[in-house]
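Q: My labmate handed me this sequence with no annotations at all. I'd like to see what the chain might look like in three dimensions before we decide whether it's worth expressing. Could you predict it?
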Amino acid sequence: MILIQKSLPLDFSVGNGFVAENTFQVPAGKRLVIEWISAMQFVPQGSGGAFGITTQVGGEQAFHALVTFPSATTDGNVNFTTSQVTRIYADPDSVVRVSGTRSVNQGSQFGNFVFSGYLENA
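A: Here is what I predict for the chain of 122 residues:
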């Protein structure tokens, strides 16, 4: 077993739209087990935000929506966060896609998505 912790930035640039994504490649011969997820993003005040993660198991892709809450207001932006225990799997040599969404395509905001867990032999 190999412990893993990965931090993936989410970039909402002007014209980037409503979704910011990033990816992680699961190594060949290893299965990823995600046990903890934490994410945050700043969005324009008055708009909403959400997080999700897409993985592939047994060759089938699945989107996992995450419980998200507004947690603070800073400089006219709202900070949305999630942090939760989970057990999500990803096949060897598959791509894990993390995403943050916002309901208003305005300005440049940023976020970050962190997961931790372990890689095991497949």
